[in-house]
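Researcher: Next sequence.
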Amino acid sequence: MKSKRKIKTGVVILAAGKGTRMNHDPRTGPARRDGTGQRLPKVLVPVGGVPMILRVLAAVEAAKFGTKPIIVVGYKKELVTDIVGKRANYACQRRQLGTGHAVAAAAPLLKGRADEILIVYGDHPLTSRPLLQKLVRHHRKTKATMSLITVTVEDFRGPRRVFYHWGRIIRNDTGNFLDRCIEFKNATARQRKIKEVNSGYYCFNAKWLWSALKQLKPNSISEEYYLTDLMGLAVSEGRRVAPLPLTNWHEGIGVNTAEEIKIAERVAAEKSKI
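Model: Next structure:
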């Protein structure tokens, strides 16, 4: 009797962003380390004294998927590679053309080498091993083409305001199945009132992902290639998209501003007391 082949999981960590919205905080201002006076890449901004990328990487390593993660770097990439070192392999996004474009940069390192692709953002400092493992198990159990974690909040007040500018999850008329995700900058006033948002954690069937990325079109407003557009593409093809709602919204926190860094630090401090 033949043993069942082990599913190979490739991991991509998106870490190419500049973090331009963090300019006004002294902790995230000019990066003197390289002598140029340029600010740190966003993923190197510390939360609780630890660069966000190292927090994310530690969670990925603890999940033990059996493969070395691919970190997609861009702005000041040498600073990221210096800190992470040989704990990861690297792909470079030379132009900032969106999340879909960033994942495509990792294709040469993963194509044909993994059955499923887990995608994580390097600016999600509260990423945890259980969360990543749960998403991968959910993806396999549902036999989905695309799985993602969503966050539903009661409102966007207080610390939950970190989610306000995130993409909104659009469900079909019955409310039972996902239809698409629309980015905040493209959403109508009515859509922005939706309380379910995309967290930025995904798992894809690898073969479909590499093919689908080639079909992405640049957004008419930002001219970027959105990874979230793959949801609508999968639905239009009749493929299964499997959402996994977070029961604890804290785990979905990602940061873009100095204020959001402080929110993440408060939440991290509270979690460390438990």
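Model: The chain has one domain: 9-273. DSSP finds eight helices and eleven strands in the chain.
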